[in-house]
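Deviation from plan, reported transparently: 2-phosphoglycolic acid complex.
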Amino acid sequence: MRKKVIAGNWKMNMLPNEAIACIEELAPAVKDTKNEVILCVPYTDLFYALLAAQGTNIKIGAQNMHFEEKGAYTGEVSGQMLKSIGVEYVIIGHSERRQYFAETDETVNKKIKSALANELKPIVCVGETLEQRESGKAEEIFTTQTRKALEGVSPEDAKKIIIAYEPIWAIGTGKTATSEDANNSVKAIRGELTKLYGNSVAEEITIQYGGSVKSSNAKELFTTSDIDGGLVGGASLKADEFAKIVNFDK
Ligand code: PGA
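Because the crystal trials were delayed, the predicted structure below was used instead.
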């Protein structure tokens, strides 16, 4: 049985004092869950968040990284740097990075390999635009993104990856895919993983849904056959709301 994994993506929000307050409020509210709880925070919050989360079941992730270890890449942060302070997860290829920061399937693939080499667990985002969905190309888009992201990744490493299926039209819009639609898309991604790695590996890989997840729809989405939890943006900024999402099964 795959574990449910609920990850918050704070995006470019939360100053260190807000991050600490949020984690201090969240920790007691999620301490009894058997689900995995992750917060992916801005770089400037990482250190504070790691300290605030010490001794709790909340894991800390970053939202991006560079694929090189070090060097002349002004403004960038490497996987090695994240690992060195105790970060465990990193979001890679979020649609906002693909859209605004020229992230490509190729850079996504390089970042995944570098994350794995540094023992970080990548949360890899895939998903289609509204236009692609309306023209019937959604499945082709997100299965291709999945295949290209994992090019050259071994089956053993693939098991450490979390995939987040996030239809772009559902992100931050309040529009959620129906649980049936989202589950079908996640099944199609698992089908692609089966082609790449065989059934037993594919069955072990965590695939989340993301896009306007909130406490009122989390249960319906996360109790489908294939959705293994969620990547939560806006609703992860409030500790009480995020705690309800984490505790969807209580
Ligand atoms: P949202 O964002 O929950 O605010 O739609 C999800 C995401 O971008 O990961």
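Residues 179-197 form the longest helix (19 residues). We consider this an acceptable substitute for the interim report.
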